[in-house]
């Protein structure tokens, strides 16, 4: 998989989560995934180096584990270790579980960051990674691959698909009251398509 193919594979997932209210910028999510995995999706779908820790299985993580080599920085020295990482059924499961992690008080400054630059720094400051160069590495990937363009997707749609579909069903209930009125029918269709666009769906 090329680096561009890796990016394109993640874009639909990270922009959807961001549009639905995730605090993690798509550019950060893609850069972190690239940095943590070496630009490839592992078979266990853990894209962020998320270790087992003290966590308990939940709706997104079944408790499955993969042990693999990695490294940390302790007292300024790189130390090679073997760690237990969470394994997931899909990329979506990983990202949702990671968002649960970021809801912890420890990561408040990550959630409140108002730019990719600030969020990259807060990931390090809050202890997500021990590498002192972690933020710089993330930003280098973001800048070299122009990943900030995907942070603008939230401006394109913010409405949840489920809410849009519910609104469209309510609209449909009134559809029969305007049968034969071409202008009203046209307006119903326009409003339904605006709701679809606002939730990232294709118009009909």
From TrEMBL:
Q: Where is the Mannosyl-glycoprotein endo-beta-N-acetylglucosamidase-like domain?
A: 2-151
Query: Would I find Lyase among this entry's keywords?
Result: no
Q: Does the keyword Hydrolase apply?
A: yes
Listed A to Z, the keywords are: Cell projection, Cilium, Flagellum, Hydrolase
InterPro entries in UniProt: Glycosyl_Hydrolase_73, MGlyc_endo_b_GlcNAc-like_dom
Which PANTHER family does its entry note?
PEPTIDOGLYCAN HYDROLASE FLGJ
Question: Which protein, by its recorded name, is this?
Answer: Flagellar protein FlgJ
